[in-house]
Model the fold of this input.
Amino acid sequence: MPADSRRRSSWAAASGTAVLVVVAALVGLTLWQGFRQGFREETLAAARQALSAALLAIALAAAPAAGTALYVSEFLDGPRRRAGKCLIELLAAFPLLVWALLVWERLVAGPSLPLLTGLLLLVALPHLATLAEEALHSVPLSSRQTAHRLGATVWQTSCRVVLPAAWNGLRSALTLTFVRVLAEAATLLWIADWSARTSRLPDAGSSPGSNVIALAAALILVGFALPTALQWVGSHSAKGRRS
Amino acid sequence: MSLSATAATRAAHARNRFARRALALGPLLFFSLLASGLGLLVLRASRPTPANELAETVTADVLILTLLQIGTTLTIALPLALAAGYTLTGASRRGLSPWLTGVLHAGAALPSVAVISLALTYVFAGRTIEGSCCVFFDPVPATPLILALVNLPQLVVLSAMVFALTPPASRGTCEALGLSPWRTFRTVVLPAARARLVTAVLLALARTVGAALPVAFLGALWFGDGNPSLAFGLFGEMLRGAEGARHALWIVAITSFLTLLASVLRARWERKA
Done:
């Protein structure tokens, strides 16, 4: 291996490791600070609300998002596929803040579970559909062509070839959408709570929200446990199938 | 035998037609959501109410600053995420990946308000508007840094996912030919993943714009000085009782423009690939 290539390789690996260390430190710091602050009743209630709304939003978004991704990836081709994907991404580019604006009064009055779920659904749906489409489209073309040559229809190819091959990508899409929705839910709850308490512009010297770090620590624990458990179950079931 | 085979083929084609029609409802749902969201915003912005008269006009400075914030955030976060994605892809072969991915998922679940609160507590602690730190914070350099930190875990997971989607056969061929991991990554994996990385950037874009609000808001709370970006303007208007729909429309216009631009770029890269 040339020395120049080896140097670049180790430099990229070192900077990548540094980034991972920074993220791990940020997670650790939040957990430490959160545990030091303690989990008060209202923090736990907010975490429960964020978690149930995120789970509900993901459950409601999964089927329509997967269906849309399947349609765009498998039933459309060329410019039509690009237009379909662009439509999904245009919706994904809508920040949650803009949707929240449309129901601001109700949000500040106290966000109910259906309202919060509805708002999070608008984030989860395009996010999940975009990632699922990428996962489905990355399945090698040769697998599809072989199935078509054997006389399978597009629907049969999608169900028996594409979906099983893209399963890992779809699982990653689901977990990533879940953690993103969880983070957005916490931010929304905090902003709504702040606005309800102080209807004024910020003054100098005020302190930032205190129990937000405890809330973040609770969500981090969920964000770590749920995807890791899902991955563990996935890898063990794959091992079981192989043996 | 032949008759039953024909019947099975007919049934399969009928199921295919039904699936095509049923799944076509998905894009229709997305289109109706997009159209109704935009319609409601335009309706609110054009309604002549006393609340709307309170609204400030969006100046060119605000738009430039917002674009600058988004651009700087992605310029900081993307190369770092690519490097971490490269490391993570290598680590997955040594069996470390599930734990690292777990930590990254936990990082992606971190709300932006918590990141800015931590930054204010640890980095800017004890500083006031008179301090030198304010120059660093307001408005350009520090906000993108914090937004990059908010986006980093999600971008790393997305880049690692995109790199993992590259067919292992092409990577294996390069390694069998004696190419170093870095050269394989630079000449095979990165060009193949380029078009897909656009999706990762677009998803980070929406989060950057959304997270800019609490970051700008808490920064202003701490230093007593507003950050004249679109997100801060929107929140200020909402607190004053104005509807803020004009600011929201500008935000949507910027993100839609960037999305369309990225789609054109991706189409070109896909054609080349």
The CA atoms of residues 136 and 166 of chain A lie 5 Å apart. Chain A touches chain B through 109 residues (CB under 8 Å).
